[in-house]
Amino acid sequence: MSIIRVENVSKTYLLGEQTVTALEGVSLVVEPGVFMAIAGPSGSGKSTLLNIMGCIDTPSKGRVEIEGIDVSGQTPDSLADVRARTLGFVFQTFNLLPVLSAQENVEYPLLQMTELTKEERAERVAFYLNMVGLTKYADHRPNQLSGGQRQRVAIARALVTHSRVVLADEPTANLDRRTGESILNLMREINQNAGTTFVFSTHDKRVMNRADRLVRMEDGQITALGMKREGSWIFVQDRRKPEDDPEI
Ligand code: ADP
After folding, report:
1. Would the CB of 45 count as within 6 Å of ligand 1?
2. pTM to 2 decimals?
3. Which fold has domain 31-58+74-237?
4. Per residue in 149-158, pLDDT tens?
């Protein structure tokens, strides 16, 4: 079964008198356990698609299913619950709360889970801080951490609710090359060891090449869908134009 299914989704925004089409007829299946990159130039609709898959935004047309449940017509309250229990988010700019320590930032989404005791929360937070290699920095605030460390806190925060999918919008864009690579390695390790599904947007070729599924977007549409087999891409759907980059 798919973990996320997007069927014929369109999204338009009204900007004053103008209608902006961010997505047009997008269909996509995310299978459990994949490490999927969404690639494409700025403005091609990557963030909009991630936000719709993450129930942060709703489609203007079409259907979205999370673990087989149609979320397109659901109320914001029930979506908040799906978001909290199935989906985790990582953002380009980390989005940590500046007044909270690393430990408190990771604990934050657990405060909604009233079934957990204080001890259970502390245990989970310690487990995920250790997973991202930050046990020693538990009491540091975001401004006492490097960019890479902040993104590690964000990854721990995305996982702490036992999310099955982590949606990451350009997670390495604000990091230098080496730090970006270590964040990507960490995400890949978690994907392979814990089976967590990752869907992340990028326009960095090195980042997209680390994925095992590739979604290429252009002008709000999917122009190619790739699967990696023995180190090379096989495209199951390909509507790229001759002038597009042949490698991706
Ligand atoms: P990407 O993530 O690939 O850079 P986006 O999904 O952010 O692309 O944007 C796709 C298109 O939708 C762009 O033309 C953008 O300007 C437009 N868009 C995105 N969000 C909004 C919004 N809230 N209001 C108006 N237009 C938007």
Report:
1. yes
2. 0.93
3. Rossmann fold (3.40.50)
4. 999 999 999 9
